[in-house]
């Protein structure tokens, strides 16, 4: 099995029974804030795009690059579709000219012509990607590969049960806006960032240990930030709180925990994987490339500057009545929302900075009141500050996912009262009837379900499944004193009260081992 690195989470898998191109991303994403690094735009995409199969793990724009898919990927390729709850991915592929689809039943092995086998695991929580994320398992002639990319399954047993895996490709770096955009003292940002960076690596080590593959390939990050306004987010400034460590840092940190089987894929690197080992060739020496990272970024910044400026020129739409359009788009969804609206539990404010860089219009999405209106000098649960032109553009293109556009761009600042609230971001990911109804149904099903099985962790008896996204706490749960941490997503709980310390809601059921009677099971708070 030959694996060719094509940048970020993208790779081409070649076997004698066919080729699979995964997650090809080349063009800037999220309001031209994210670029692939190392740069993959100079690869021979005309040749790379001539494949038998195409797999895109989810609809995040650093995985689903519509322009690149339209221009460079063969429309004769069969698209391997995860079993997602909505038809959005297939609809987007069809709009780009793709006509051949294989709808892979979730977690079922499918044998393709020539003996090539694949299995796709689809994750379908509203917090998984933009309504779904997935992983791809591939087997040919006894060689097995797992492309986990960004996905965070609760465990990898479904893959391990299919036989020993020889190549494990997974995310290790950050892919979020926290904590950089929050209006906090720099010392606090650094502390929170370091905590997140450490959790990212801890989660990666756990996945690697679960699968015990022969070779581990760090992929799916980090992006690079070439706009001058975002340059500080690149991990080149000696900031221990930067959440975007690169592949060379991965190798260094992996070595500290005994990892010796890591393989970096630069764009153009080729790994020949067999049951006996792996041999890899690179277009340039890996250590030398990352030793010159700053120079590579600076050269890339100058080369991509016209691209960024052209993107910025397209965002302004002064003809858009922002308040009126937000009312038209959002108020009907607020009326239909039960779980998300209650979960947010208060007003959310958008401060829109005008073209002059000084004037500000403040608009409130009032979740309890089920309306969008001008700000009325009240306390708000969340506040976002961004350029008016970005919201104009989202409304102009009828964007249904403000998370997979505005928030991932990091072109905003944020402040909040109290804990992180996942419902805020879940709602702004679901600005369509189809998405909202799915998310409401998912929360309804999961909030009504009970988890009767308990486990013992240290001095505590707790429910086996994390109240957040049902991770198995026998594997991901760590108790330190009276606190429980689920390492899958880093959520923390106060065990005596059951209260979630990370976000609103998600109460855990727990009692001390020596308690005569367990505390009452905590109902999830929304």
What's the arrangement of secondary structure elements?
Blueprint: E1 2-5, E2 11-15, E3 18-22, E4 35-36, H1 45-48, E5 53-55, H2 66-72, E6 78-81, H3 88-95, E7 100-103, E8 110-111, E9 117-123, E10 133-140, E11 143-149, H4 157-160, E12 167-171, H5 186-211, E13 215-219, E14 223-224, H6 247-256, E15 270-273, E16 278-281, H7 286-291, H8 293-313, H9 322-336, H10 339-344, E17 347-353, E18 360-366, E19 371-374, E20 382-387, H11 388-396, H12 403-409, E21 413-416, H13 422-428, H14 433-448, E22 454-457, E23 460-463, H15 473-476, E24 477-480, E25 483-486, E26 491-494, E27 510-512
Q: Helix count?
A: 15
Rounded average pLDDT: 93
Radius of gyration: 23 Å
Strand content: 15-25%
Total count of strands: 27
The spatial strand order of the largest sheet comes to: 7-6-5-3-2-1-15-16
CATH architecture level-2 label of the largest domain: 4-Layer Sandwich
Give helix % range: 25-40%
Secondary-structure-based class equals alpha+beta
CATH class call of the largest domain: Alpha Beta
Largest sheet: 8 strands, mixed
CATH superfamily heading of the largest domain: Ribonuclease Z/Hydroxyacylglutathione hydrolase-like
The CATH topology of the largest domain is what? Metallo-beta-lactamase, Chain A
Low-confidence runs: 517-526
How far apart lie the N and C ends? 48 Å
Shape assignment: globular
Number of domains: 3
């Amino acid at each position: 099995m030959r694996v060719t690195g094509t940048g970020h989470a993208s790779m081409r898998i070649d076997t004698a029974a066919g080729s699979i191109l995964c997650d090809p991303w080349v063009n800037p994403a999220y309001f031209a804030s994210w670029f692939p690094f190392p740069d993959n735009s100079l690869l021979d995409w005309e040749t790379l795009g001539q494949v038998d199969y195409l797999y895109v793990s989810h609809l995040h724009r650093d995985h689903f690059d519509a322009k690149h898919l339209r221009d460079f990927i063969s429309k004769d390729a069969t698209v391997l579709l995860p079993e997602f709850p909505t038809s959005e991915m297939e609809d987007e592929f069809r709009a780009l000219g793709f006509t051949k689809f294989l709808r892979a039943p979730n977690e079922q092995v499918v044998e393709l012509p020539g003996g090539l086998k694949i299995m796709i695991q689809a994750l379908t929580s509203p917090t998984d990607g933009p309504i779904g994320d997935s992983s791809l398992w591939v087997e040919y002639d006894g060689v097995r590969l797992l492309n986990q990319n960004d996905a965070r399954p609760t465990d990898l047993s479904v893959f391990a049960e299919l036989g020993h895996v020889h190549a494990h490709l997974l995310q290790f770096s950050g892919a979020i806006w926290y904590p950089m955009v929050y209006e906090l003292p720099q010392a606090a940002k650094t502390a929170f960032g370091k905590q997140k960076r450490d959790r990212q690596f801890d989660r990666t080590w756990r996945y690697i240990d679960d699968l015990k593959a022969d070779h581990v390939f760090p992929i799916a990050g980090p992006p690079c930030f070439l706009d001058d306004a975002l340059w500080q987010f690149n991990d080149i400034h000696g900031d221990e709180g930067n959440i975007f460590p690169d592949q060379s840092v991965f190798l260094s940190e992996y070595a500290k925990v005994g990892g010796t089987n890591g393989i970096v894929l630069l764009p153009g690197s080729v790994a020949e994987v067999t049951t006996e080992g792996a041999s890899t060739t690179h277009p340039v020496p890996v250590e030398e490339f990352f030793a010159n990272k700053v120079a590579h970024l600076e050269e890339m910044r100058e080369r991509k500057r016209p691209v960024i400026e052209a993107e910025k020129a397209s965002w302004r739409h002064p003809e858009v009545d922002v308040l009126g359009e937000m009312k038209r788009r959002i108020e009907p969804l607020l009326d239909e929302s039960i779980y998300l609206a209650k979960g947010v539990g208060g007003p959310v404010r958008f401060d829109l900075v005008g073209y002059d860089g000084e004037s500000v219009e403040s608009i409130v999405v009032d979740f309890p009141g089920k309306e969008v209106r001008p700000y009325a000098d009240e306390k708000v649960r969340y506040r976002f500050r961004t350029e008016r032109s970005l919201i104009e553009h989202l409304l102009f293109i009828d964007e249904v996912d403000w998370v997979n556009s505005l928030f991932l761009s990091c072109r905003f600042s944020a402040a909040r009262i109290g804990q992180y609230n996942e419902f805020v971001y879940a709602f702004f990911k679901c600005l369509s009837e189809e998405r909202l109804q799915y998310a409401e149904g998912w929360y309804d099903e999961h909030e009504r379900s009970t988890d009767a099985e308990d486990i013992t962790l240290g001095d505590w008896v707790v429910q086996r499944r994390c109240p957040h996204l049902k991770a198995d706490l026998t594997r991901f749960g760590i108790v330190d004193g009276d606190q429980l941490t689920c390492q899958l997503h880093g959520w923390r709980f106060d065990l005596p009260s059951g209260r979630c310390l990370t976000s609103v809601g998600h109460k855990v059921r727990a009692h001390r081992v020596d308690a005569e009677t367990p505390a009452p099971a905590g109902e999830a708070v929304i």
